[in-house]
C-alpha cells in the first residue's frame, strides 16, 4: 500500500496515494470536533451555571484528561489497532459530549456533575492526529513524500482550530451552545467511523518491539522533539496573552488582537507549506533546534514592535517557524519509535505542546503583572531559545536504537541526499 519512491514528491502526489484522500478528509472531519467542542462546552457550561469560575474549572478538567492521557490512548491504538481502539473511544467520547449537552441544556446544572462528565469525556478523546500520522507513514515509502504529507496534515489541522470557533459562532447565533456540543459529537463520530473503515487502516496491530518482545517506547531519540515541542507550546501560549496585554497597553480593542493572532496562524501555514516543498539537505535533528531558535529570536524581537501593525508582522515571522518546527518534531518522533509504537511517539509530542501551553498561560499571567512587556516577550522567546539549545546539545542526539524501523538504513542517510521531516499540528 506504499507509494513508489519514483513518484513526483509534491502535495498532489500525496493526495494521489491509494486511500489518502479518504483517510485525510475523514480524519480532518473527526479532528474538527477538537476545534468545535472545547469552545462550545465552555459556552454551554457558562450559560448553564452562570459562573465563569465553574466553566474554567470544568474546562481545565476536560483539557487535563485530553492532554495527559493522550499517550495512553495512543498506546491502545498501537496495541489493538485503529479500528478496535478508535471506534469505542469515539462512541464513548461522542456519547459523553451528548450527555454534557443534555446536562447544560437548562440552567442550574450541578457543578460536580459537569466536572465529572467533563473528566470522563476528555479521558475518551480519540487520538486521531497521531493515528493519521502513523497511517501516513504506512502509505508512503519515500522520505520526501512523507515530509510533504506531514506538512499538509499539520497545516490543515491548524486551520481546523480557526474553522471550529467560526462554526460555534454560527451555531450560537441561532441556537443554544449545547447544540454546538452535539455538533462536536457528530463530527467525531462521522469522521472516526469513516477513517477507521478505510482499507488503509489496519484492523489490528499488537505492539511489538524490533526484537520481537513486548517492547516499550523508550530511548533518548524522543527527548529532542519532546523538549522542543514543550518549549514552543510554552512560548506560544505566553504570546497569546502578551498580545492581549500589548493591545490593551496601547488602547487598541480586542479586534486587533484577533488580527495579530491571525497573522501568527497565516505565517505558520505559509511556513509549513514552504517547509514541506523543500528538499532539505540538512538532517532533521539539526534543523529542529535551528527552527526553534528562529522562533525564539523573532519572538524576542516582537517585544520591540512600536505598534500593533508591526507586532502583527513580527507575529507572522514567528509563525513562519511554528509549523515547520512541529512537523520536524513529529518526523523525528516517528523515526525514533520502534514499529508498533509510532502512534504513541506522535502523541507524546502532542502532549508536550499542550502541557507547555498550559504552563505558558499561567506563567505569562504572572510575568505580565510584574515585568515590562518587552521583557516578557524576551522571556517567552528565551524559553524557545533554551529549548533549542537543549535540543541541539550533543547528548540528545540519538544513536538510532531501532535501525530496523520503517525507513531502514536509507533513513540514516537522509541528510546526505537532502530532504527532510515534517510535522503535524495540535490534535
How much beta, percentage-wise? under 5%
CATH topology of the largest domain: Growth Hormone, Chain: A
Query: Helix/strand/pairing class, anyone?
Result: mainly alpha
The residue-averaged pLDDT reads 81
The helix/strand order is HHHHHHHHHHHHHHHHH
From the alpha-carbon coordinates, what is the Rg to the nearest angstrom? 21 Å
Number of strands: 0
Largest sheet: none
Distance between the termini: 25 Å
* Name of the top-level CATH class of the largest domain: Mainly Alpha
Shape: globular
Number of helices: 17
Approximate helicity band: over 70%
Topology:
Elements: H1 11-15, H2 20-49, H3 52-68, H4 70-80, H5 82-103, H6 111-123, H7 128-139, H8 143-172, H9 177-196, H10 223-249, H11 254-277, H12 284-302, H13 308-336, H14 342-368, H15 373-392, H16 408-412, H17 414-417
Short description:
The protein has helices at residues 11-15, 20-49, 52-68, 70-80, 82-103, 111-123, 128-139, 143-172, 177-196, 223-249, 254-277, 284-302, 308-336, 342-368, 373-392, 408-412, 414-417. By secondary structure, it is mostly helical.
Structure commentary:
By secondary structure, this protein is an all-alpha fold. It folds into two domains: about 10-195, MFS general substrate transporter like domains (Growth Hormone, Chain: A, Up-down Bundle), CATH 1.20.1250.20; about 220-415, MFS general substrate transporter like domains (Growth Hormone, Chain: A), CATH 1.20.1250. The protein has 17 helices and no strands. It has helices spanning about 10-15, 20-50, 50-70, 70-80, 80-105, 110-125, 130-140, 145-170, 175-195, 225-250, 255-275, 285-300, 310-335, 340-370, 375-390, 410, 415. Mean pLDDT is about 80; it is low at about 1-5, about 205-215 and about 400-425.
Amino acid at each position: 500500500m506504499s507509494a513508489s519512491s519514483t513518484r513526483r514528491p509534491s502535495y498532489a502526489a500525496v493526495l494521489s496515494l491509494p486511500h489518502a484522500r479518504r483517510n485525510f478528509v475523514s480524519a480532518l472531519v473527526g479532528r474538527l470536533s477538537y476545534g468545535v467542542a472545547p469552545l462550545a462546552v465552555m459556552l454551554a457550561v457558562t450559560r448553564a451555571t452562570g459562573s465563569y469560575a465553574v466553566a474554567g474549572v470544568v474546562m481545565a478538567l476536560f483539557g487535563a484528561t485530553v492532554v495527559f492521557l493522550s499517550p495512553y490512548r495512543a498506546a491502545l491504538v498501537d496495541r489493538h489497532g485503529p479500528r478496535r481502539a478508535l471506534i469505542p473511544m469515539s462512541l464513548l467520547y461522542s456519547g459523553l459530549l451528548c450527555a454534557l449537552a443534555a446536562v447544560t441544556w437548562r440552567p442550574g446544572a450541578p457543578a460536580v456533575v459537569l466536572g465529572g462528565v467533563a473528566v470522563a469525556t476528555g479521558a475518551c478523546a480519540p487520538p486521531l492526529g497521531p493515528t493519521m500520522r502513523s497511517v501516513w507513514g504506512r502509505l508512503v515509502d519515500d522520505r520526501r513524500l512523507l515530509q510533504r504529507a506531514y506538512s499538509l496534515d499539520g497545516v490543515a489541522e491548524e486551520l481546523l482550530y480557526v474553522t471550529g470557533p467560526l462554526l460555534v459562532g454560527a451555531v450560537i447565533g441561532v441556537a443554544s451552545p449545547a447544540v454546538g456540543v452535539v455538533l462536536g459529537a457528530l463530527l467525531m463520530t462521522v469522521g472516526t467511523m469513516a477513517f477507521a473503515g478505510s482499507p488503509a487502516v489496519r484492523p489490528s496491530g499488537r505492539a511489538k518491539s524490533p526484537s520481537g518482545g513486548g517492547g516499550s517506547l523508550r530511548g533518548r531519540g524522543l527527548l529532542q522533539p519532546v523538549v522542543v515541542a514543550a518549549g514552543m507550546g510554552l512560548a506560544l501560549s505566553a504570546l497569546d496573552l502578551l498580545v492581549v496585554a500589548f493591545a490593551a497597553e496601547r488602547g487598541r480593542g480586542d479586534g486587533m488582537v484577533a488580527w495579530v493572532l491571525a497573522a501568527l496562524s497565516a505565517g505558520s501555514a505559509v511556513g509549513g507549506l514552504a517547509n514541506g516543498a523543500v528538499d532539505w539537505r540538512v538532517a532533521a535533528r539539526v534543523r529542529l533546534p535551528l527552527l526553534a531558535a528562529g522562533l525564539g529570536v523573532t519572538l524576542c524581537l516582537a517585544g520591540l514592535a512600536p505598534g500593533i501593525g508591526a507586532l502583527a508582522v513580527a507575529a507572522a515571522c514567528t509563525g513562519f517557524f511554528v509549523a515547520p518546527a512541529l512537523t520536524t518534531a513529529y518526523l523525528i518522533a516517528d523515526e525514533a519509535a520502534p514499529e508498533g509504537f509510532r502512534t504513541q511517539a506522535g502523541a507524546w509530542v502532542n502532549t508536550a505542546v499542550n502541557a507547555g501551553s498550559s504552563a505558558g498561560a499561567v506563567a505569562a499571567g504572572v510575568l505580565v503583572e510584574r515585568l515590562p512587556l518587552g521583557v516578557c516577550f524576551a522571556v517567552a522567546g528565551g524559553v524557545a531559545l533554551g529549548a533549542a539549545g537543549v535540543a541541539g546539545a550533543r547528548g540528545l542526539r540519538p544513536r538510532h536504537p531501532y535501525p530496523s524501523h520503517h525507513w531502514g538504513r536509507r533513513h540514516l542517510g537522509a541528510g546526505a541526499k537532502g530532504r527532510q521531516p515534517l510535522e503535524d499540528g495540535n490534535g
